[in-house]
Specification:
It is built from seven helices and no strands. It is mainly alpha-helical and about 190 residues long. The chain is globular and about 60 Å long.
Length: about 190
């Protein structure tokens, strides 16, 4: 019964994810190439959040009664790891996406054909989105199980799917929000 209730809740949260994407319909219509990289950002952010979640749950299990200062130290370490991983993955994704766009001569703005500056801008948005999403995902993956523990809910049972959905929503807002701010408001 717990599983079905969890799945029903996640179904509705999945609808929220779809609605958030739908809120950026204008961005997607103007820059269809941007959708191509959405799964990469969501996947990497989800992976980073899941890694942080696993480490945090392991630390919670190993640190029963260790005190707040030890948990703070673990959170600080997860934040630092998220920042470093986010920065590295942001740089790597910028380079990889830029090379991909140059090699394939993908048109960024549908009417214009390939424009190098547009490719740099898209690669930059993807790199920044990747960096910020991974940093935030690491924080979410660390804070959520600690919060559940304080609420006397087993974080090993309740965390994974909910964190993934929260990270999806956060990453979509970051990615399409930056795209909107950079391309649609200039």
């Amino acid at each position: 019964m717990k599983r079905i209730l969890s799945l029903i809740t996640l179904l509705f949260l999945g609808l929220v994810v779809s609605c958030v994407v739908g809120g950026f319909e204008g961005v997607i219509a103007s820059l269809p190439v941007i959708v191509f990289f959405q799964s990469m950002i969501l996947g990497m952010a989800g992976n980073a959040g899941t890694q942080s979640l696993a480490v945090t749950i392991r630390n919670i299990a190993n640190e029963k009664g260790s005190g707040k200062e030890h948990k703070f130290k673990g959170s600080k370490k997860e934040f630092k790891n998220g920042l470093i991983n986010g920065l590295l993955m942001g740089i790597i994704s910028f380079v990889v996406v830029l090379v991909y766009l140059i090699i394939t001569k993908k048109s960024i703005i549908s009417e214009s054909g390939f424009v190098f500056n547009d490719a740099i801008n898209v690669a930059g948005i993807i790199g920044i989105s990747m960096m910020v999403s991974i940093c935030l995902s690491s924080i979410i993956g660390n804070v959520f199980p600690i919060l559940l523990t304080k609420l006397h809910i087993d974080p090993a049972v309740a965390s994974g799917p909910f964190i993934t959905t929260i990270i999806d929503i956060t990453s979509i807002v970051i990615y399409y929000g930056l795209t909107y701010l950079f391309f649609m408001t200039l």
